[in-house]
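Here is one chain, start to finish.
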Amino acid sequence: MELRNIHVAFGGVRAVAGVTIDLHAGEVVGVVGGNGAGKTTLMRTLSGARPPDSGQILVNGQPVAIGNPREAKALGIETIYQTLALADNLDAPANVFLGRELEAATTLDDAAMESATRKVIGRLNPNFKNFKTPVLRLSGGQRQAVAIARAIHFNARALIMDEPTAALGPAETAQVHALIRQLKSEGIGIFLVSHDIHDVFDLSERISVMYHGRLVGTVNKNDVTTDEVLGMIILGKPPTKLTRQELAELHG
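Its structure:
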């Protein structure tokens, strides 16, 4: 996937200004920046929630038009929002197939939906057993597994994950990290939108930093320190332009 020279404005405010960012199969790219940096708006252009005012989106090198979320899903692009958008009163199979239920004759084929759900969640988390439990009663990590299963069962090739570990404890965060690594091993690309710099360093190969609607730069994780990425986020400068004094003052 490639977003090329994307521009988005709301009234006179340039939310995204000429940003180019890409994603390869089986790769996690962290998308970071302060509040109002434009990262969420940029991801909304890929998810179909807010088509860009100008610029191109390419899939496998071919330009595509994504005018709404349905068109994004048809291209294998799924979004897992921070809220997860699960129906709390329903169990895992009902959530995975919500709006795309399987039918046998004139009734819902509950057995087929449960079987398919067991298969897809089993790939992600072999220890998941609560298939009959309303998702309201599941842990945060288990709820993430249900949301991810819903996305990948319908052949997602790229996931946008919005703050997937926000408000999770250490054990649940570790669960979600394991889910993301499993998705990577299956060749699914992930844009990881996060405020947690440690999450981003743990999971990403590359990190794209935004600042006031523009791209400061995309760096290989192994080539930078967390301080340098924080400097990009806070000061809007690439690592080569950051002075030692500026880096020291980040902790001031």
